[in-house]
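TA notes, week 10

Several of you asked for a full example with nothing omitted. So below is the full record: structure tokens for the whole chain, then the designed sequence directly under it. When grading your own attempts, check the secondary structure regions first.
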């Protein structure tokens, strides 16, 4: 979905309806947030008896995200330098000390200057890392408060959504700047927190023995349709507050879709493989989207815009998948091995040999 919206930006003559549909692809990030929160809940529960649990959690998360992101920072700097020397008009003012430091420290989710500049789409990594920092305390707190049933988890989602909406409306009253799509306020953890809580709701449903866990696939399918309509109406609305509620509506749509897929006995191996390399694909797809810019204007002279969009989307996805399969092996897996090494060292367990880490 994220690739689709970025490819559509490079196709000039899309009609208003198709432009609006492709723009909705930005909500693919919310799917990533929901799945991330769900998998964290599952893994954190399974490792409940792990020695030095909190420090091990943070090491595991750091080495999952940091190696590829640290590679992407100089990589995209090199891409910008190359484009500039080839006649582009690149701006290097974004590489301020504050922007660079905040990205290296993963606090750019709270720094407007570095929020979404150094690495294309890097805002979601800043928001994700902020969520990681809070997750163990939020998860343990919710469990201790016995908020572990699907109904209780849904209440958490509603309360977080209502709280965010109230804060955003209050900011709107006291601030002349409107609440815009893809703005710092939109990207911020406060606005995305209800989305992560939907991942917690998915976990509570997964662990539930009630009817909602055993219901027929038609139930989440109908719910999926309802949330699709609600999301579409919110997307089409002109109200500023829609960007405070839309991410959560879309997250609920994804939750219903995940429940439908969970009831399907066989899953697509290709989709599972794409899911495994999704982090690399998110980081590197921008490279190929920019590359097709020079081809796009010529192609639109020869074929309809919708066909150009389709072909470029397929080409970008295929190229990104190919490079991501390499970076997943070369960077992500090695980072995970180093994470396991430091966790074992922390816990005083037998360490792997150096050759096993390369």
């Amino acid at each position: 979905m994220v690739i689709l919206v970025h490819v559509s930006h490079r196709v000039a003559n899309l009609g208003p309806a198709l432009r609006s549909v492709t723009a909705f692809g930005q909500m693919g990030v919310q799917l990533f947030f929901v799945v991330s929160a769900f998998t964290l809940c599952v893994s954190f529960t399974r490792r409940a008896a792990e020695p030095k649990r909190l420090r091990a959690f943070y090491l595991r998360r750091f080495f999952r995200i940091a190696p590829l992101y640290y590679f992407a920072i100089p990589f995209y700097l090199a891409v910008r330098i190359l484009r500039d020397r080839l006649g582009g008009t690149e701006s290097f003012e974004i590489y301020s000390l504050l922007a660079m430091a905040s990205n290296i420290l993963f606090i750019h989710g709270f720094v407007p200057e570095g929020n979404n500049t150094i690495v294309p789409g890097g805002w979601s990594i800043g928001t994700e890392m902020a969520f990681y920092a809070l997750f163990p305390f939020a998860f343990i707190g919710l469990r201790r408060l016995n908020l572990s049933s699907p109904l209780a988890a849904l209440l958490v989602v509603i309360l977080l959504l209502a709280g965010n909406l109230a804060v955003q409306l209050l900011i709107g009253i006291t601030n002349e700047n409107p609440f815009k799509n893809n703005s710092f306020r939109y990207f911020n953890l406060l606005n995305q927190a209800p989305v992560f809580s939907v991942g917690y709701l998915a976990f509570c449903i997964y662990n539930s023995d009630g009817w909602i866990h055993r219901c027929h696939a038609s139930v989440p399918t109908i719910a999926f349709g309802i949330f699709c309509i609600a999301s579409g109406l919110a997307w089409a609305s002109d109200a500023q507050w829609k960007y405070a509620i839309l991410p959560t509506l879309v997250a609920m749509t994804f939750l219903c879709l995940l429940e439908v897929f969970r009831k399907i006995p066989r899953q697509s191996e290709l989709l599972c493989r794409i899911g495994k390399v999704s982090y690399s694909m998110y980081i590197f797809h921008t490279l190929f989207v920019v590359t097709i810019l020079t081809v796009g204007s010529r192609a639109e002279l020869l074929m309809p815009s919708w066909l150009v969009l389709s072909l470029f989307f397929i080409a970008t996805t295929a190229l990104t998948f190919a490079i991501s399969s390499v970076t997943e092996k070369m960077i992500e897996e090695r980072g995970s091995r180093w994470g396991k090494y430091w966790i074992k060292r922390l816990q005083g367990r037998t360490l792997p040999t150096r050759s096993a880490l390369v």
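The chain has one domain: 2-347. Use that as a sanity check on your answer.
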